[in-house]
From TrEMBL:
Its cofactor is Co(2+); Zn(2+); NAD(+). Belongs to the sugar phosphate cyclases superfamily. Dehydroquinate synthase family. Pathway: Metabolic intermediate biosynthesis; chorismate biosynthesis; chorismate from D-erythrose 4-phosphate and phosphoenolpyruvate: step 2/7. Keywords: Amino-acid biosynthesis, Aromatic amino acid biosynthesis, Cobalt, Cytoplasm, Lyase, Metal-binding, NAD, Nucleotide-binding, Zinc. GO terms for biological process: amino acid biosynthetic process; aromatic amino acid family biosynthetic process; chorismate biosynthetic process. This is 3-dehydroquinate synthase. Binds 1 divalent metal cation per subunit. Can use either Co(2+) or Zn(2+). Catalyzes the conversion of 3-deoxy-D-arabino-heptulosonate 7-phosphate (DAHP) to dehydroquinate (DHQ). NAD(+) binds at residues 81-86, 115-119, 139-140, 152, 161. It catalyses: 7-phospho-2-dehydro-3-deoxy-D-arabino-heptonate = 3-dehydroquinate + phosphate. It comes from Bradyrhizobium sacchari.
Length: 382
């Protein structure tokens, strides 16, 4: 872990992928440099910005102004906010609009928004005319620390999260930390779960720093930039070593086997945002690791304690509407987890913990102890 940045230093993190390498540019105000950076990267290019209604209200005009100042023609495609757009219908809308805008093979798609817009626009770019380049301009904390980096793009199926997609790396990521000032507190907290994930899975020193400094990240300032840059460096390192998740990259899925099943069980609705699912999933993964004797109870509890301190849900009972609408039973959750992309020959793979800061990939996990564990958790009092 490196020392916190000064407030005004934009920082560049390199995603070292050979001829598909790209920069992540992080800093307050860097959105205004979008046009000049795109012009330098792709002289003469035309662009289409894909965004959602809420982000458009706050940040579309500044993005368009920056492109216009650099002489770059652009058009806009605005989708509904939330997972409702990360669907077949959302993909059709964006793809048809890109075709109507005559975005050519050498043009650029710009994803301006959170993880939903990034995953959706990135996937549309991956399949449009068999592949058009795209730029990520992440506007949520989650997107700045995670979804804009690494090239996983896609949409959900009603049967599971991100079940259709492609690996398609962006050519540039512009993460303006000032745009997070308009993000709702609940969405900011949800994104924080993915920040904490990097500490839990591979960097105990970062986790300790988060325990002491997390409230400053929520306030803004240099701690926020430091947390985003540290997270991006961690992800860039993993992605550059294992772009297509044949090994190590699966560690980034910590908390997601449970989390994605919970998102599907709540219909990809506002009852549970992705980051909230990851927070509960990460806590469950720590507790399940303790149950298997892989990590001490105290270390497992440390993970959940920090997420609670950050205001995140950590229990199934914390999911909105749990008491009124309930949740799927253990068998239904097991069926949803069977759609996880880490499943091999029908066997579950989990990311489990040996210590805070040391996650491991556990293959061939027997279903019975997982089902029993879920039954136990579902039966807990609210
Ligand atoms: N591709 C990957 O590697 C990866 C990684 C993590 C998550 N994801 C995916 O990302 C999605 C979650 O991303 P998310 O949490 O950003 O959700 P999101 O894109 O739905 O954004 C969250 C909400 O915040 C609003 N918003 C975004 N930026 C804003 C801003 N600056 N000001 C005001 N409002 C703003 C959006 O309109 C939306 O309502 C999930 O679908 C998840 O599966 C993908
Ligand atoms: O980049 C990755 O790899 C991740 O696993 C990051 C996750 O935070 C992210 O939610 C990702 O979309 C999940 O991937 P999936 O392959 O399980 O859909
Ligand atoms: Zn995630």
């Amino acid at each position: 872990m490196t020392a916190p940045l000064k407030l005004s230093d934009p920082v560049k993190v390199d995603v070292a992928l050979g001829d598909r390498a790209y920069d992540i540019v992080i800093g307050r105000g860097v959105l205004s440099s979008l046009g000049e950076r795109v012009a330098a990267l792709r002289p003469g290019v035309r662009t289409a910005i894909v965004t959602d209604r809420t982000v458009a209200k706050h940040w579309l005009e500044p993005a368009e102004a920056s492109l216009a100042a650099a002489g770059i023609p652009t058009s806009r495609i605005v989708v509904e906010e939330g997972e409702i757009s990360k669907t077949y219908a959302g993909l059709e809308k964006v793809s048809e609009a890109l075709i109507a805008a005559k975005i050519e093979r050498n043009d650029l798609v710009i994803a301006l928004g959170g993880g939903v817009v990034g995953d959706l626009a990135g996937f549309a770019a991956a399949i449009l005319r068999r592949g058009v380049d795209f730029v990520q301009v992440p506007t949520s904390l989650l997107a700045q620390v995670d979804s804009s980096v690494g090239g996983k793009t896609g949409i959900n199926s009603p049967q599971g999260k991100n079940l259709l997609g492609a690996f398609h790396q962006p050519v540039l990521v512009i993460a303006d930390t000032a745009v997070l000032d308009t993000l709702s507190p609940r969405q900011f907290r949800a994104g924080y779960a993915e920040v904490a994930k990097y500490g839990v899975l591979g960097d105990e020193a970062f986790f300790t720093w988060l325990e002491k400094n997390h409230s400053d990240i929520f306030k803004g300032g240099s701690a926020r930039e430091h947390a985003i840059a540290t997270s991006c460096r961690a992800k860039a390192g993993v992605v550059s070593r294992d772009e297509r998740e044949t090994g190590e990259r699966a560690l980034l899925n910590l908390g997601h086997t449970f989390g994605h099943a919970l998102e599907a069980a709540t219909g990809f609705s506002d009852r549970l945002f992705h980051g909230e699912g990851v927070s509960i999933g990460m806590t469950l993964a720590a507790q399940f690791s303790a149950k298997l004797g892989m990590i001490g109870e105290a270390d497992a509890a440390r993970v959940g304690r920090h997420l609670i301190e950050a205001g995140l849900p950590t229990r199934l009972q914390d999911i909105a509407g749990f008491a009124q609408e309930g949740l799927a039973d253990a068998d239904a959750l097991m069926a949803l987890m069977a759609q996880d992309k880490k499943v091999k020959r029908g066997k579950l793979t989990f990311i489990l913990l040996e210590a805070v800061g040391r996650a491991v990939i556990a293959k061939d996990v027997e279903p019975a102890p997982v089902r029993d564990f879920l039954k136990e958790k579902l039966a807990q009092k609210a």
